[in-house]
Amino acid sequence: MGGRVTRVFRNFNVENRARREISKEKPTPAPRHSTARLDTMADSPEIKEEVLRKDDRFLTLLKDIYVESRDPPVQVKDRGGEHLPSKQEEKRLTKLGHLEALDIKKVPKGKISLVEALTLLNNHKLQPQIWTAEKIAAEYSLELKEVNSLLEFFIPFTVQEFPKETKKAIASQKPKMLT
């Protein structure tokens, strides 16, 4: 409602106000600063002659100057034991099976890809007597300590389906109100 009222006052006599503004004479521009006139002065022959003239006094002073430059000695910065790798990192092909299109093809030794991690966790969960930490470490070129930590702290999700009777029992319970 308020927008309609303000629109009426804003649009009142718009055309006449616009014509009045357009018909006004344009204001005269402010005078230019004197530095703006230097461009026109640069075209004059006296200034060009002054710029191109060689001054003998300045030339003799310039010839007396001799500049010798030397680079400072190169200092090797100690980066706290950091060093460049001497050879290229060894890589191994991934063991992906049917999920080959989802992941990268080569992984540095001592590391695993995400799909491989999920695969080995699932294999260990389903068959822990076959997929032991030692076998996983040998299969994927990993350290035994890291594999033990991986198997201890990371567990893949399990999907559980409830029978229909259980679903009814769960649905029949009255939900608790949060306050």
UniProtKB/TrEMBL annotation:
Q: Which GO terms describe its cellular component?
A: mitochondrion
Any GO BP annotation: mitochondrial respiratory chain complex I assembly
Pfam families in the record: UPF0240
Specify residue ranges for compositional bias: Basic and acidic residues. Answer: 18-27
Checking InterPro entries in the record gives: NDUFAF4
Q: Where is this region: Disordered?
A: 18-43
Stored PANTHER family: NADH DEHYDROGENASE [UBIQUINONE] 1 ALPHA SUBCOMPLEX ASSEMBLY FACTOR 4, UPF0240 PROTEIN
Subunit composition and interactions: Binds calmodulin. Interacts with NDUFAF3.
Q: Which family does it belong to?
A: Belongs to the NDUFAF4 family.
- What is the name listed in the Swiss-Prot or TrEMBL entry for this protein? NADH dehydrogenase [ubiquinone] 1 alpha subcomplex assembly factor 4
The opening ranks of the lineage are: Eukaryota, Metazoa, Chordata, Craniata, Vertebrata
